[in-house]
Amino acid sequence: MKGITMQYRPLGKCGTRVSVFGLGGWTTFGGSITDRAATRRLITSAFDAGVNFFDIADVYEKGKAEKAMGRVLREFPRHELVISTKVYFPMSDDVNDRGLSRKHILESIDRSLERIGVDYLDLYFCHRFDEETPLEETARAMDDAIRQGKVLYWGTSEWTGAQVDDVRALCDRRHLHAPQVEQPQLSILYRRKYLEDVRPALERYGMGAVVWSPLASGLLTGKYDDGVPKDARMSRMDWLRDKLVTPENVERARAVQPVADRLGCTRAQAALAWALEQPGVSSVILGATRLSQLRENLAALNVSLDDVARRDLSAIPAAAG
Predict the structure, then answer these.
(1) CA–CA gap between residue 21 and residue 121 (Å, rounded)
(2) Which of 96, 103, 273, 280 is deepest in the core (most CB within 10 A)?
(3) pTM of the predicted structure, to 2 decimals
(4) Does the annotation mark 88 as catalytic?
């Protein structure tokens, strides 16, 4: 895309570099976007703009996102891509088709590889912490996946700092490959857990962070200032809408507008520029349903926050949770 120069950062203390903006598949590919031509346009445009990090999960549309994104990603040179997917959430009603057991992890890897159409995953995330599976069982399964050549690095997603401490200590004692990256939620609204709890743990171990929902599911763009339209994706996600689109959060989102106006950018771009500046962030995962939306978001690379903007954005009260 004209006027955009992609930047790349390592995953913490790691040789592999990811584009500072990645493209994710949550609720979009295989979900709200089912047209193959539209899927190809979005993913190809992102790749042409320098995006090399593409993030999926097996549970996104129960495998449809992996298939939809994989059909396009297979058209690009494999060595130019950093592909991630995840394991944890139920994929069927079967009692063992969920969680972080050895059985579910090793079976899920093969299914994800087949759906995406690749021989290996660059990143494989434990999508949540599993209270019902011994941590050593999970870590050994991930270590085996790496030794088998199916995974290059494994990671955690939405784990606490204490859980990261525990798994890193276990891997050190048992001489196992340890997680190299965490995928937390991070936005101007939802920042406390990452900045106060997770980031310090990642810094201790040289881990990277690839963050999701930097626009708080669209709230920070302003499109929900006057409520949720009936045709919006959010209207079909009651659990998220009721938590996110509250009067307090809408007012917090509106507080970004004066900053954006002064910087000469959109509200979304100001919020994304803020996320890119947060310590320890390797990549910010974008979601897009339209090319215009993708272009706008990627153009946040050209937004430079000054000290006043940083102060004003950081002064916006964080949401609970």
Answers:
(1) 19
(2) 273
(3) 0.96
(4) no
